[in-house]
Design goal:
Strand order of the largest sheet: 1-2-5-12-7-10
Number of helices: 3
Oligomer: single chain
Structural class: mainly beta
Largest sheet: 6 strands, antiparallel
Radius of gyration: 16 Å
CATH architecture: Sandwich
Number of strands: 13
Strand content: 35-45%
CATH class: Mainly Beta
Length: 166
Amino acid sequence: MTVDTLVKELELLPHPEGGYYKETYRSESKITQSCLSPNFKGDRNMATGIYFLIEKGNFSALHKIKSDETWHFYFGDALEVIEINEQGNLTITQIGSNLQNGETFQYTVKANTWFGSRVSSNGHFSLVGCTVYPGFDFQDFELAQQQDLIQLFPQHQAIIKELTRQ
């Protein structure tokens, strides 16, 4: 199966951070502002889900959201999820189907963590799913500014330059 076939069959659209996506779920139930942390402005759906497809030579740019996000591996090659937490610790997690090679079928990125993703070095594409709770809202999305992130985490300058578009 090719990237073009997956994009067509799953009706994927270009994602602002890189790759392709399609929202597949948005809960009808809401969490009211009064039950959320003060970081959130307004009510949120309880959860949302998307397909996400990234191909070799592209990447999901470093960004952060105000919710936890669980990644689920579906098809293709392993995906690297690269994180820089608030303390400046760098973590790279391989999401894929080769458990003997240290890959995992699912992984959760905690809220307010800078993260991006790319296909593992020898791969061609990765098809994954992402579940966000409380549900994703673009109000809660922040795309990294390369120089600002380098100023915060100069020890990770190389990976920041690789995973930002400036």
